[in-house]
Amino acid sequence: MKLSIGQKQRLAIARAFLKNPPIIIFDEGTSAVDAETEGSIQEAMQNLFANRTTLIVAHRLSSLRTADRILVIDQGRIVESGTHEALIRNNGAYATLFEAQLQL
Hints:
- There is one protein chain.
- By secondary structure, this protein is an alpha+beta fold.
- It has four helices and four strands, in the order αβαβββαα.
- The protein has helices spanning 5-19, 35-49, 84-90, 93-103, and strands at residues 23-27, 53-57, 70-74, 77-82.
- A two-stranded parallel sheet has the order 1-2.
- It is globular and about 45 Å long.
């Protein structure tokens, strides 16, 4: 049976819940699901992320809103760091990218 990319992503997230590791790395973990499904997954992942180190690589910035700390990397260098709210207030690269994604 063939699974879609979104189904594979959801399966990988479910496996992470079952494994309960101390460190989790998501690289574009919800990139192939629609916005509504992403919201549901993000709610469930908040429990998974509790009391552990979690690294999230994402181009869809909506998936980073609840992160304790966001690092913005440009050409291999960290150009900004902070919470979603602080980075929006700074009106730098993150805010520009976030606003651009809202326009889509």
